[in-house]
Every structure is written in structure tokens, then in C-alpha cells.
Write a structure and sequence with these properties.
The chain has helices at about 15-30, 45-50, 70-80, 100-105, 115-125, and strands spanning about 1-10, 30-40, 60-70, 85-90, 105-110. It has about 130 residues and is α/β, with parallel strands linked by helices.
Length: about 130
């Protein structure tokens, strides 16, 4: 299994960054994982960059509070049931564009709460 995580912006808080590094070390023992930080203050350019990663050979997952929620066990089953490389897309503070969300294969919610992208990134890694 191979997983990519696209994150809009960067992780500014050291506590999030340190914990994410720990999770990435744990994950990488069993799964190939790559994190790509896309920096662009222009939403249209960011959208274009994100869309480049959505290809037919990957299973793309948009992170949105409007998506499907899972228990931890169901989420684990869900990701291991996919027969393609997975790509999770975490948007900027204002969220992903509707066009990008419609372009993905699945919409995942970590919570009905709106959370900062840094926290969403950390929770996603913890669940992976």
C-alpha cells in the first residue's frame, strides 16, 4: 500500500510538527507514505496543483467536514480495502474548492467540527 497526503500550507506549530514526525516514523514501518506540502496563497493556483495529483490510478480522498465519518476500525478497513494508491487532500483554512471535492473519489470527514488544517493533518496521520 502507498499513501500520499497533500497538505495546503505548512505546519507552523512545533508541537503538531513533532507529533506528526513521530506518527510518520511509525506508519512508514508498514506502509509507504509521502507528505507533500503545497504552498500557494492563490486558491485557483493551489486548486490546479492539487488537481494534478488526482489521476485514474489513485484513489483520491478529499478531507471535508461534509464527508463520511468512520470509526477507527471502519476507517482502517476502508483504506485497506482500496486496491489503489491513496491520496488524501487537506485544504487551506477556507477549505477545498467544490470543483476539487467533486473531482475526488471520496469525501472523508474527521469530525463535523471545522478544524485547522494542522490539526486535521495530525489526526489523519494518527488514524492511518
Amino acid at each position: 500500500m502507498k499513501i500520499k497526503v497533500l497538505v495546503a500550507g505548512k505546519i507552523k506549530e512545533k508541537c503538531y510538527s513533532d507529533k506528526a514526525k513521530k506518527y510518520l516514523r511509525w506508519i512508514s514501518r508498514d506502509i509507504s507514505i509521502e507528505v507533500i506540502f503545497l504552498k500557494d496563497n492563490d486558491l485557483k493556483r493551489l486548486d490546479k496543483k492539487q488537481l494534478q495529483y488526482i489521476t485514474p490510478d489513485v484513489f483520491s480522498i478529499a478531507m471535508s467536514e461534509h464527508g463520511k465519518e468512520f470509526s477507527s476500525v471502519d476507517f482502517s478497513n476502508f483504506i485497506f480495502d482500496q486496491n489503489k494508491e491513496l491520496i488524501f487532500i487537506i485544504g487551506p483554512p477556507d477549505g477545498l474548492t467544490k470543483y476539487l471535492i467533486k473531482s475526488t473519489d471520496f469525501i472523508l470527514s474527521l469530525s463535523k467540527f471545522t478544524v485547522p488544517h494542522e490539526l486535521a493533518y495530525l489526526v489523519l496521520l494518527e488514524q492511518i
